[in-house]
Amino acid sequence: AKHGYVTATIDYRLLPIVYLSERSIIREAYMSAQDLSAAIRYFKANCEEYRIDPSRIFVLGSSSSSISILLELFMDEDERPAETFEYPDLGPMHSSGFEEYADYSAQVSGAIPQWGGILGTDMIDADDYTPLCMIHGTDDVTLPYDTGYCSSQLLLNSISIYMYGSHAIANRLDDLGITDYELHTFEGKGHVFYFNAIMMIKEAEFDTCFNITRNFLLNHLAMPTSIGETLAENISIYPNPASEYIIIGNEDESSPMPLNVDVFDMTGRKVMSGSVYGTRQTIEVSQWQAGIYIVRFERDGRSVNRKITIIH
After folding, report:
1. 300 compared with 237, residue with greater pLDDT
2. pLDDT confidence of 212, banded at 50, 70, 90?
3. Where are the strands (E) in 63-180, listed by range?
4. In the prediction, which pLDDT does 227 show?
5. Sign of CA dihedral 135, 140, 143, 149
6. What pTM does this model have?
7. What local confidence, expressed as pLDDT, does residue 189 receive?
8. Which of 5, 45, 117, 217 has the greatest CB tally within 10 Å of its CB?
């Protein structure tokens, strides 16, 4: 909220633990995805009341909520698990909620699934893709980083649900030629790693995940204003990806003010700050670590973000 976002935490249907089974867990995941769809459509229908831009809605979830997000985004009707058709039939993905909101789309601008997974990566298609920012620890045994069965520490030993985690999802996106995603891998970290054993927040880990989320949102909001669009039209940055240097082009010769440039890595750490005078400036990047960076340009209170990739 301090960063200017309207935020909401939603509820979704739950099942009593006495009914815990592989069937009920799959049905529960599907129901929560249905209810997420209903919430998105509700906010779009009531966007004026809540003062939100319905074309700029993002969803963020942790653990089971990440599963809900990924199912809602990518599961088509012909990909529904057989368990969702069993009595009582749960209905199509977007059938939950009030009928007056049925005609609204549940499409969002991006999603941040933390330590999440999906029942099958083949349901992710290029034609209905939504940008993802995934955060996952490699030692997660509750929801696997790559593929595997969910941990029986939290489920009954007789329940085995095979999941495809963030790394498997990234591999699927690579196979599809999709580059608009982020996978933030944390070596040796487990499930929900910014909480300790007694569920107290570990501030350093939380701040890291917060900054990753913030930068993803900044990069995908692309707030359109007439002034901002003019600034954007006059700025270029190339080559991208780059390995040794980048060139910043500044074509707006009419402004006497310098073009201020800040560069941030994906943890939110500022790696460079400076100003561009004239029409071109070359910046050495050979010493930067490989990865994705956000370049923020600012002049006269106007700002534009660009994303660049450094490779070595």
Report:
1. 237
2. very high
3. 110-114, 117-118, 132-137, 147-149, 162-165
4. 41
5. positive
6. 0.71
7. 95
8. 117
Identify each DSSP E strand in 132-269 by its residue range: 132-137, 147-149, 162-165, 181-186, 235-238, 245-250, 259-265
DSSP 279: S
* Dist CA 141 CA 148 (whole Å): 9
Task: Report d(CA 111, CA 118) in Å as an integer.
Answer: 14
Average pLDDT taken over every residue of the chain: 87
| Of residues 244 and 264, more confidently modeled | 244
Q: Which phi and psi angles does 47 have, rounded to 5°?
A: -65, -35
d(CA 258, CA 277): 5
Max distance between CA atoms of the chain, in angstroms, equals: 71
* Phi, psi for residue 75 in degrees, rounded to 5: -85, 120
* Lookup: tokens for 193: 């790693």
Q: What is the reported pLDDT for 224?
A: 46
- Closest CA relative to residue 41, chosen from 92, 100, 113, 129: 100
- 292-304 burial string, b = 16+ CB within 10 Å, else e? bbbbbbbbeeebb
Strand (E) or helix (H) holding 67 = helix 64-74
274: part of which helix (H) or strand (E)? strand 270-276
